């Protein structure tokens, strides 16, 4: 009896393969039964309604390299009905350690065409729109037409990534973004969460900071790794002295403002990022319940920081009542997390942190000290522990000693470096 059942299944399989082969060679649209048989496992997982939503969805993937190629591959294999691939770049030999489908024969051809050619052999009934173009703010709207169900950001250039995320966020287009898979090796540290929660990733930090300058601090799901750098781990490779001697190293990039240094990538990690993104897109479209771990809500912490800073300003003005400062909880979060990276500028500690004025108030004859004195700005404050702030307020802000005398030149140097860095990021407001 068992042999008969096995034989029947094998026969059905052969019949399906023959029919599918015939349609691949004569008709790009096989019968619905064939399509549903190929999607049978997704069908029982997501349910009839869930799979229907996936099959009628339209997903745009911007960036079709190591991460984006895996997203595209799994979305098409899982039933997404229409997909648009956007990438300006070509397949290189070094792409082959992480690209989902590219082969030696594809080297030198556009990434979007390599993807389309291979994926049409898997799902010939899916509409694949390959755009060998660069997404940018000037022409980006045309590449996002058609009311996409979801957009996937798999770009590795910071400014282009920020522009795409900001555009989708402000135009109410659902989007998920991949942060940096380079220099990462621990698959257990890969997470999905809000961009405000992403840590231990330079690409994430720079993206998040520039978005905050534009007024976007939350509401964008991202895939990121919490793996910390350390001794013996891969890091961004510097340019050789020979390249610097040639001058104008910015001209070495594929395009202006694109990175020119080599980023070490373990080929498995971009695929893990891509598979996480694909899972998120599929479950979100299908309405399948997900329970990602949430980061801590730090709004109360930021609120307390502003209240304590206002209290300090009142004390420095002789306990003047009703002092209000022109900073809010969002500003506090930006200063604490982005400018000072969540650590005391003095000790590097990351607990019991508060904001404090860095330099003393100007003399009375140079400014008004009343309740309407709004001279304090984000650039006037630094992050310290509560104990350090007590000492700073007593010796620097009230006694008039210089910060360098109290904390030393190294701490002053860190503060100046942070201010200089912030001057750079302020351009993205």
Task: Give me a quick take on this structure.
Keywords: ATP-binding, Ligase, Membrane, Mitochondrion, Mitochondrion outer membrane, Nucleotide-binding, Transmembrane, Transmembrane helix. The protein is α/β, with parallel strands linked by helices. It contains 15 helices and nine strands.
- Overall mean pLDDT: 85
Helices, by number, come to: 15
Main beta sheet strand tally, sense and closure: 7 strands, mixed
Low-confidence stretches: 239-261
Report strand order across the widest sheet: 3-2-1-4-5-7-6
The count of domains is 2
- CATH fold-type name of the largest domain: Rossmann fold
- The termini sit apart by 72 Å
| Strand composition percent | 5-15%
Radius of gyration based on Cα positions: 27 Å
CATH class (first level) name of the largest domain: Alpha Beta
Protein name: THIF-type NAD/FAD binding fold domain-containing protein
Pfam families: ThiF
Organism: Tuber magnatum (white Piedmont truffle)
GO molecular function: ATP binding; tRNA threonylcarbamoyladenosine dehydratase; ubiquitin-like modifier activating enzyme activity
Set out the fold topology.
Layout: H1 2-26, H2 32-38, H3 40-55, E1 58-62, H4 66-77, E2 82-86, H5 111-119, E3 127-131, H6 140-143, E4 150-153, H7 158-170, E5 175-178, E6 190-194, H8 202-213, E7 221-225, H9 241-246, H10 268-286, H11 299-316, H12 329-339, E8 353-357, E9 381-385, H13 386-398, H14 403-407, H15 409-425
Parallel strand pairs: 1-2, 1-4, 2-3, 4-5, 5-7
Antiparallel strand pairs: 6-7, 8-9
Helix pairs in contact: 3-10, 4-10, 7-8, 11-12
């Amino acid at each position: 009896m068992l042999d008969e059942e096995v034989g029947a299944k094998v026969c059905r399989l052969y019949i399906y393969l023959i029919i599918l082969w015939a349609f691949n060679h004569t008709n790009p649209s096989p019968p619905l039964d064939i399509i549903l048989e190929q999607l049978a496992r997704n069908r029982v997982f997501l349910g009839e309604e869930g799979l229907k939503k996936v099959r009628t969805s339209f997903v745009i993937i911007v960036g079709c390299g190591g991460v984006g190629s895996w997203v595209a591959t799994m979305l098409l294999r899982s039933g997404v009905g229409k997909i648009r691939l956007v990438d300006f770049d070509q397949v290189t030999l070094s792409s082959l350690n992480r690209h989902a489908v590219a082969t030696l024969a594809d080297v030198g051809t556009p990434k979007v065409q390599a993807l389309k050619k291979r994926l049409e052999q898997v799902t010939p009934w899916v509409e694949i729109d390959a755009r060998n173009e660069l997404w940018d703010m000037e022409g980006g709207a045309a590449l996002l037409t058609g009311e996409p169900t979801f957009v996937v950001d798999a770009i590795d250039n910071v400014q282009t990534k920020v522009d795409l995320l900001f555009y989708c966020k402000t135009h109410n287009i659902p989007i998920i973004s991949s942060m940096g898979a380079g220099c990462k090796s621990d698959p257990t540290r890969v997470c999905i969460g809000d961009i405000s929660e992403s840590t231990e990733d330079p690409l994430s930090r720079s993206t998040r900071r520039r978005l905050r300058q534009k007024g976007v601090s939350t509401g964008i799901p991202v895939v990121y790794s919490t793996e910390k750098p350390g001794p013996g781990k891969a890091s961004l490779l510097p340019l050789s002295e020979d390249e610097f001697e040639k001058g104008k190293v910015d001209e070495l990039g594929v395009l202006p403002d694109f990175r020119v240094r080599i980023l070490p990538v373990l080929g498995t990690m971009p695929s893990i990022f891509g598979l996480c993104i694909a899972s998120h897109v599929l479950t979100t479209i299908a309405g399948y319940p997900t329970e990602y771990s949430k980061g801590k809500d730090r709004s109360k912490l930021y609120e307390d920081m502003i209240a304590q800073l206002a209290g300090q300003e009142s004390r420095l003005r002789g306990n003047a009542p009703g002092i209000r400062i022109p900073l809010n909880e969002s500003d506090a979060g930006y200063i604490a997390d982005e400018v000072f990276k969540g650590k005391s500028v003095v000790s590097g500690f990351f607990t019991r942190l508060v904001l404090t004025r860095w330099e003393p108030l100007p003399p009375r004859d140079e400014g008004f000290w009343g309740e309407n004195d709004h001279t304090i700005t984000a650039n006037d404050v630094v992050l310290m522990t509560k104990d350090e702030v007590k000492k700073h307020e007593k010796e620097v802000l009230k006694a008039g000693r210089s910060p360098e005398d109290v904390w030393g030149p190294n701490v002053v140097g860190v503060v100046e470096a942070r201010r200089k860095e912030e001057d750079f990021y302020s351009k993205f407001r």
